[in-house]
Input
Amino acid sequence: MLGRSVRGGQDGFSQEEPTRLWGFRRSTSVAGTTPTMRRSSKEVRVGLFSRKSRAIRSDVEQSRATYQRALALFDQRRWSEAADGFAEAAGADPGSSSCRLFLGVSLTNAGRWEEALEPLRACLDLRPEYFEAHNALGMALGKLGRFAEADEHIVHAARLGHPQAAITMRRRGIDYCRECHRPVHRTEPASVDVNVISPKVGMQCTACDEVFCVPCLIGDADSAFNVPCLRCGGELTLMELDR
Output
């Protein structure tokens, strides 16, 4: 469990906080993983040294070099320059999720949040369960003030184990339903009428700490307060912000 949230007026998305990547294996990036590279390698093995195959290999090598230069700029936090390089590499390699991830993160960290959305969504089209891309897209959306959309991606990344997403969830005062995985929110203490509970509010088990949304709990019941924990049968209570 993520624990209780830190109470405060912040929305959880600091405009100064960079989006971070965790455990990214650079050896699996552009070089050697694209269909273009595989075709080129096959042609070399069978000895087809035509002008076309040499041009293909030249394009792949150029894309690889551009990507590596962009990585160096990324490491130096020269975000806009890195974004230019990743954009060029992405254009040469339509199948690279890595190029699109780094392009989106570079644009986000450069404060170009709206521009970051397209490459990050393209990355998720290629790798739907990529927790780095879900976290990065959530951060970009959050910095644009599009919190409902941001929360969807932040909780997805947190479910998949992204550390920054877990921290952002805690700052936001949100968690996710263990049944349907939708985001749920914590409330101010004693601020909710138990007879009128928003579907966006979370209910937490006092015994096992599992979290559920109201729609998953109610079903045919009159109230979420009349339903035991779906995991252990324990008592459920509203998730609250710390005082």
Q: What stands out?
A: The CA atoms of residues 40 and 46 lie 10 Å apart. The chain is about 50% helix and 5% strand. Residues 1-10, 25-46 have pLDDT under 50 and may be disordered. The first helix runs from residue 35 to 45.
